[in-house]
Write a structure and sequence with these properties.
single chain; 121 residues; mainly alpha; OTU domain-containing protein 6B-like
Length: 121
Amino acid sequence: MEEEGVENLSPQETLSAKHKKEAKELQAQIQKLKHSVPKGDKKKKKDVAAQIAILEAELEQKHEKERQELNDTSAKGVDETAEQLENLSTSVTQNASQPKKPSKAQKRKVNHDFESSVFID
């Protein structure tokens, strides 16, 4: 049931998408509950409102707990990430020192400039 391209998202984005999906499902469930109440039944309406409040509170607590867990695990991974970035930056600087090959457009421009200067002289 997962959407394609989810594996390319960061953990925060994945969690956010999951939370949005769960919130949307909860809203659908709430609408279903609200529509199940007959118009004149005040007691049933009050019970449904209480049930909705409980469901929303449970979902919010669950989401907050998941965010805290993610923040705890990401705080531990910051040192590892910093080390990986240092390794990456050194490899990028090594690659940057190598001369770049001119693109086709650059070659055409140089060739065109050369040909036009030959014909002018």
